[in-house]
Amino acid sequence: MLDQAVFYFFAALAIVSAILVVTRRNAVQSAIFLVTALLATAGIFLNLNAEFVFIVQVILYAGGIMVLFVFVIMLVNLDVALHQVQFNRQWFVALIISAVLAAQVAAAIAVSRHSLYIMPAAPPETLEPNTERVAFYLFHTYMLPFELASILLLVAMVGAVVMAKKRV
Amino acid sequence: MVPIGHYIFLSVAMLAIGIVGIVTRRNVIIILMSVELILNAVNINLVAFSRLVGSVEGQIFAIFIITDAAAEAAVGLGIIIAFFRNRETVLADEMDILKW
Amino acid sequence: MNLNAIIPYILPVLFALVIVALLPLVAGYIVLVERKVMADMQVRLGPMRVGPHGLLQPIADAVKLLLKEDIIPESADKLVFWGAPLISVTAAMLALAALPIGPFFQIADLNIGLLYILGISSLGIFGIVLGGWASNSHYSLMGALRSAAQLVSYETSAGMAIVGALLLAGTLSTRGIVQEQSDTGWWFIFVAPVGFFIYLVASIAETNRAPFDMPEAESELVAGYMTEYSGFRWALYFLAEYTNMVVVASIATTLFLGGWMRPFANTPAFNFLDYLPPLLMLWVAGYCFRRTPKQPVQVQKMFMAAVGVLCVVVALVLIMPMAVPRDSFLATSKPGIHGAFWFLFKVAAYIYVFMWLRFTFPRYRFDQLMRLGWQFLVPLSIVNVMMIGLALALHRQFGWPNWISFPLCVALTLIGGGFLLATGEKHEHPFVGEEGEGQEEETPVHA
């Protein structure tokens, strides 16, 4: 029961934070609410017994990527931009289409709930010990994507430094 | 664990909010933040199914997505800084140098 | 809800309440200790007036900060201005949850304990950056950005140094790391000394202490992220900084200095060291009682006597597990109580080294600081990780004995560090040209 209450709390927090991210006028406030949304997502991961993904989300996403975002927002923060129109002219159509998308999925889930929920959740012991299991798969089965990810990060680092330099 | 449909619905809700953000906002940095929201929605989906099935592979995919998002955010923000240095604007409507 | 569901939560909540309630007091007294140590190194006495030997100074400071006027800049973003110190303090206090103060004194023994502390510490950066931005002043923003850049830079090398020690421990759980040091009998500082050195330097930079306190010292001269904060909000930032110091010292103690273990824990010949803690407390109590008659005011006499009595009580608590019969229940609490004492003693020693370094070295300029972080510490820590991995592989795969593989790899790391020092850029003068040109430009031109 506590399990479910925690999920609903974090889910509500994630959705409210996400809505606030896309509607705030001030970019720094958007960034703050994105951090909240990311931490709520991390809480959902922890609730799902995925402790390694939880801590990777906190360290990398909330503690790394969002700090980068906040830095760049402060570097390009224009008071002029605050007073301009924030939303473009298609906002109504976008809202309708997204609502229709979400409603379609909700309807699909509701209609199929008797066949969708038949599979019982696996016991959490199959995911324990989490870090060791993730490490095993990462270094045995998924070694190639791991090395490719490191090359991708190297390329991204070089690219970002070249992009942001004043004179190449 | 809550029934899997609830996780799917949360994921799609965040996806929809992210799509609204990308399509609607003019500030390029907020568009990038909406992209991050969508990636997070995908992560929730992956981890929820990994828990349902009892295998860790969904979580590994989620870790790779987080790594990917870091790389993309770094390069994207570098591009925004370079463009801002040239044109003094971060609004998507005004980034129309290549238009004929 | 039945009672059985709540029982596993009672003890952690109790520990958490005790730690969070005591933390502001402890942080205040660390400030007092810093002022006394600074005075000692500058051959003077430090605070002596408020309370005997200045022991009530933190209480006076806290009362002053609470009663100060709360000034908020007019065009500041009120919500973010209010929330930024809270983020700093919350992140600092959350990190205390995974610290192994004793074998039984831990709020939460997470499987990922060490990564959790790292992650929560990286969330503390937001408190600084948002505080600087919310003050709506250029100097605050620049100070905040500089401080955040410094924190991010040194987080990388601190993390690599921690990874080096993690390779030796084989587990991320903080309790498991101390257990591993207890099992192998060697503190990891002897096995990976370069890692300890890297972590020492990186942790000084992580907590914005001198000689890396350029973003903060700017606040003494011009401005920094704390400028527009007054009264209790500033006290919250300060509390966050000192709590961060305690957290960082606790990580170093857990990883490198053996956690809650007594020195020479596995050697029965050194069992006389078990009597060192109560003797130490009795010596402090004796000093308090000796100074009591020399205090000028009656209240100060009573306070000094009370401190002496407190030290005697602590000494009695420490000696109790050894004085009761060996099989009774109370004797089994010895690892817990003595463990807590040794842990706090090592944390205090590490913080004393912080203070010692603060009052010895001049400050690094910001570009020198960034260069040190990225061009010296990060490559050195990467080499450190590789060498520890090599040492472990030589020991476990090829069967080399411990006393050959580890010193060999430490020597290789030191050679790598020497190479980095020798080939680094030296003596960059950003303002002065070459010798000849400088001379010419300095001669004044007469009209």
What does this protein look like?
The complex is a heterotrimer of chains A (168), B (100) and C (447). By secondary structure, chain A is mainly alpha-helical. Helix content of chain A is 77%, strand content 0%. Chain A has eight helices and no strands. The radius of gyration of chain A is 21 Å and the shape is globular. In chain A, 34% of the residues are buried. Chain B contains three helices and no strands. In chain B, α1 (4-24) runs antiparallel to α2 (28-53) and α2 (28-53) packs antiparallel against α3 (57-87). Chain C is 69% helix and 0% strand. Chain C has helices at 3-41, 57-67, 78-94, 113-134, 138-169, 174-184, 188-191, 193-206, 214-221, 232-255, 276-291, 298-323, 334-358, 366-396, 402-423, 435-442. The model of chain C is unreliable at 432-447 (pLDDT under 50). At the A-B interface, α1, α2, α3, α5 and α7 of A face α1, α2 and α3 of B.
Radius of gyration of chain C over all CA atoms, rounded:
25 Å
> Into which percent range does the helicity of residues of chain C fall?
55-70%
**Based on DSSP secondary structure assignment, what is the total number of beta strands of chain B?**
0
Largest sheet of chain B: none
Work out the oligomeric state of the chains in this entry: heterotrimer
In terms of DSSP E residues, the strand content of chain C is: under 5%
Secondary structure: elements and pairs:
The complex is a heterotrimer of chains A (168), B (100) and C (447).
Chain A (H helix, E strand, L loop, with lengths): L1 H22 L3 H21 L3 H25 L3 H4 L8 H21 L1 H4 L13 H10 L3 H22 L4
Helix pairs in contact in A: 1-2, 2-3
Chain B lengths: L3 H21 L3 H26 L3 H31 L13
Helix pairs in contact in B: 1-2, 2-3
Chain C lengths: L2 H39 L15 H11 L10 H17 L18 H22 L3 H32 L4 H11 L3 H4 L1 H14 L7 H8 L10 H24 L20 H16 L6 H26 L10 H25 L7 H31 L5 H22 L11 H8 L5
Helix pairs in contact in C: 1-2, 3-4, 3-10, 4-5, 5-8, 5-9, 5-14, 8-10, 8-14, 10-13, 11-12, 12-13, 14-15
Gist of the model:
With 168 residues, chain A is mainly alpha-helical.
